[in-house]
Design brief:
The chain is an alpha/beta fold. It is built from 13 helices and 25 strands. About 25% of the residues lie in helices and about 25% in strands. Helix 7 packs across helix 8 and helix 11 crosses helix 12.
């Protein structure tokens, strides 16, 4: 943590500061908070983090990192009904995976006693009261933006009575929904959040940390600012929907604070992606109904899903850096996220040959039983990545789409009488094919030109097509899962539907049970990333076994989605 109010030397960026950084630098110049910079990331442990949370993580931890401060992780565990230790552990793993470290781990439940004591103080000061109306009655009395609310019949109940009832609420004497504690502010305030907001409700569900000690739990608007204050947060960074909550945040903090220090809330735009839903409630529905295979389904926008899909921490951080932080909401095209991971994997992924939809190719004039070892560069973008050997033999596997018996004029792959180069190997001339009783091609035949291998006299011969292949003799059978966008709608959150399943893309997961890979890939472990030549970027999945490896497509080599949408 910085001990002075000077901006660290390494804080000078190469590009323009975003508005949050401008605020932080101004505060440092003015010596606010004794030169301290302290942020927090406060997720509720009621689900897995998604790509939208990654934007907040990068800002909360990034600001602290950039300006010599600290960022704490605070689990907002104020609703025991929806929270689980599983989610807490997942949140921690995701933050670490993105490459960040918190200074401390706190929980809102750490402050339950302090928050309760503050609520008691508000009651004693005539600034809070126990209301026995239902939530529906309270909502009906809120009024509108143009008309004031109606006061509760319990608004002026004696302080002693509210104190007694609040104590008994916490002792579990009343059922859930029977009573709430409301702040007594102003039922005609133009900001609806000031119209005597509920600050405590009764919940009898055991808490995963405090057990059955508490039967009243604070609402978010009451716990948020106070928790920031207890932790000495300087910059409380939230998304734009909390702009209207900020006056209430300030109101409670001003009542609580003792001295000059107080936290300040600042808001930035949330991340909205095309073809994506960010609602935890909707994501939970997808999981619970089995519409996806869990929180880590590679089609999910969760960080565990993206990780399983093969996204790298660097690609996500680069994407977030590219879109930036503003004071207005918008929607980012999914293709920008995909572009980011392509760029990163292009520099890192090892190139290998994998035939997804195989058909046999037999080289007629290649010597029976002969094999050759050829060299394949691991990554042309990385001179230090080296190379590995691939095996060439008489029988090969090629992509079924690389052969066409009656080909159009501009088909530059394999067709009877046509020539192509086998990548890293010879030029071949197709001599025909064999079909089964249904007319499906089972085998393609060709002759090879022995002097066209690299370094030989005919190597410079030009042909219009190059295809990849795998030796049938040493091929490794693998399962390949082709993933695409989960939703067909560009803005699924805005669509009207009777059932969520109506919005799902039926081709978002296509499983190819038997593809063939070169033998080099046989040692792949879950998380290893590759570029399958001509097919895209793939990652070894956790479902892999010694008997069969499983690979998930991270992204295709090019953005084909828009082209397909135009066709549709």
């Amino acid at each position: 943590m910085s001990e002075t109010n000077e901006i660290p030397a390494n804080a000078t960026p190469e590009k323009s500061l975003n508005f949050i950084e401008q605020i932080v630098e101004e505060d440092l110049r003015n010596g606010l908070n004794d030169g301290r910079i302290q942020t927090r990331f406060p997720p509720e442990p009621n689900g897995y983090l998604h790509i939208g949370h990654a934007k907040a993580i990068c800002l909360d931890f990034g600001i602290a990192q950039k300006y010599g401060g600290i960022c704490n992780l605070r689990l907002d565990d104020t609703n025991p009904v929806k929270e689980d230790v599983e989610y807490t552990d997942a949140i921690k793993n995701d933050i670490k995976w993105l490459g960040f470290e918190w200074a401390n781990v706190f929980h809102a439940s750490d402050y339950f006693q302090d928050l309760y004591d503050f609520a008691v103080r508000l009651i004693k000061e005539g600034k809070a009261y126990v209301d026995e109306q239902t939530s529906e009655q309270i909502a009906a009395q809120k009024g509108t933006l143009t008309s004031p609310g109606t006061e509760s019949p319990y608004r002026n109940r004696p302080i002693g009575e509210s104190l007694d009832l609040f104590r008994r609420m916490n002792e579990g004497e009343f059922p859930e929904g029977a009573m709430t504690l409301r702040a007594k502010i102003d039922m005609s305030h133009p900001n609806m959040h000031f119209r005597d907001p509920i600050i405590y409700r009764i919940i009898h569900h055991p808490h995963h940390r405090t057990g059955t000690k508490w039967h009243v739990y604070p609402m978010y608007d009451f716990a948020h600012g106070q928790s920031d204050y207890f932790e000495r947060v300087t910059h409380s960074l939230c998304t734009l929907e909390f702009v209207v909550h900020r006056p209430l945040y300030d109101y409670f903090v001003e009542l609580l604070k003792d001295g000059a220090y107080r936290p300040h809330q600042y808001e930035f735009n949330r991340l909205n992606l095309t073809y994506t839903m960010m609602s935890k409630r909707k994501l939970l529905e997808l999981v619970q109904r089995g519409l996806v295979h869990g929180w880590d389904d590679p089609r999910m926008p969760t960080l565990v899903g993206l990780r399983r899909r093969g996204y790298t921490p660097e690609s996500i951080k680069n994407f977030i850096d590219a879109i930036g932080y503003t004071k207005y909401d918008g929607t980012v095209d999914m293709s920008l996220l995909e572009h980011s991971v392509r760029e990163d994997l292009n520099k890192k992924a090892t190139r290998v040959s994998v035939v997804l939809n195989p058909v046999k190719l037999i080289i007629n004039n290649y010597p029976e039983g002969q094999v050759e070892k050829m060299s394949m560069v691991n990554n042309p973008e990385d001179p230090e990545s080296g190379s590995h050997e691939i095996t060439f033999s008489k029988e090969l596997w090629i992509e079924r789409e690389d052969f066409m018996e009656d080909a159009p004029k501009k088909f530059f792959r394999l067709t009877p009488g046509g020539e192509v180069r086998l990548k890293s190997a010879y030029i071949i001339t197709c001599t025909g094919c064999e079909k089964d009783a249904s007319g499906n091609v089972t085998t393609v035949y060709a002759d090879y030109q022995p002097d066209t291998l690299s370094g030989m006299p005919g190597a410079s011969k030009k042909v219009k097509g190059t295809i990849h292949w795998v030796s049938a003799e040493t091929a490794v059978p693998v399962e390949v899962r082709l993933y695409d966008r989960l939703f067909t709608s560009e803005n699924p959150a805005e669509e009207k539907y009777d059932d969520l399943s109506e919005l799902l893309n039926p081709e978002s997961e296509i499983i190819l049970p038997t593809s063939y890979a070169e033998e080099f890939i046989s040692e792949a472990r879950p998380g290893d990333r590759y570029q399958f030549v001509r097919n895209g970027y793939f990652v070894a999945d956790k479902d892999s076994t010694k008997e069969k490896l499983v690979f998930n497509r991270t992204v295709s080599l090019k953005d084909s989605w828009k082209k397909e949408q135009k066709k549709a």
